From TrEMBL:
InterPro entries: Adenine_glyco, DNA-3mA_glycosylase, DNA_glycosylase
Lineage of origin: Bacteria, Pseudomonadati, Pseudomonadota, Gammaproteobacteria, Alteromonadales
PANTHER family, per database record: DNA-3-METHYLADENINE GLYCOSYLASE 1 (PTHR30037), DNA-3-METHYLADENINE GLYCOSYLASE I (PTHR30037:SF4)
Coiled coil: none
Gene3D superfamilies: Hypothetical protein, domain 2 (1.10.340.30)
Entry protein name: DNA-3-methyladenine glycosylase I
Superkingdom assignment: Bacteria
Species the sequence originates in: Colwellia asteriadis
């Protein structure tokens, strides 16, 4: 008897194995380390106006050019680094987004200093437990939430750039603070099982 195909979220393009892998192994998995949080922040802010798949294809380039997402190293990038990055097609060559990533690294470190870790800061917005949304179909997905609105205002106040409510909602989904897997998706319960106490 043939195995039934796994049910996945409707946004996954099943013809793209790397996209399927991202959904199956990363999307919605609760993130508790600052390095991964920073990586997703850089990638999500680079996505503005583009598809996530475009960014996913350039992820290796971002890792190479952004010091493997070492926030301390990125915070030290200067104008020379910006010009160097602008010449490399391995990433999105948008000056404002590149400069925002460097600026956000500095602001990220300020939050780490104040709260002990960026992870503690951002998880406090969901009371340290993922919000599990009721997603029956593609129509149930939203682009923002009251939490992403509040977080966007707070980060803007702290000097972050290219992190509006829509971008932050995507960040919260990707890093598992919001579980937006389809109810029938085989990953819905699996990512819930990965929750750690904070």
């Amino acid at each position: 008897m043939k195995n039934e195909p796994l049910c996945r979220c409707p946004w996954v393009d099943l013809s793209k194995p790397d996209y399927v892998q991202y959904h199956d192994e990363e999307w919605g998995v609760p993130v508790y380390d600052d390095k991964t949080m920073f990586e997703f922040m850089v990638l999500e802010s680079a996505q503005a106006g583009l598809s996530w798949y475009t960014i996913l294809k350039k992820r290796a380039g971002y890792r190479r050019l952004f010091a493997d997402f070492d926030v301390t190293a990125v915070a030290k990038f200067n104008q020379e680094d910006v010009e160097r990055l602008m010449q490399d097609a391995a990433i999105i060559r948008n000056r404002l987004k590149i400069e925002a990533a460097i600026n956000n690294a500095k602001r990220f470190i300020e939050i780490q200093t104040e709260f002990g870790s960026f992870t503690h800061f951002i998880w406090s917005y969901v009371n340290n437990a993922p919000i599990v949304n009721n997603i029956e179909s593609a129509e149930d997905y939203v682009a923002t939430s009251p939490i992403s609105d509040v977080l966007a205002k707070e980060l803007k106040k702290r000097g972050f750039k290219f992190l509006g409510s829509t971008t932050l909602y995507s960040h919260l989904q990707a890093t598992g603070l919001i579980n937006d897997h389809l109810n029938s998706c085989y990953r819905k319960e699996a990512v819930s099982a990965l929750i750690q106490p904070l």
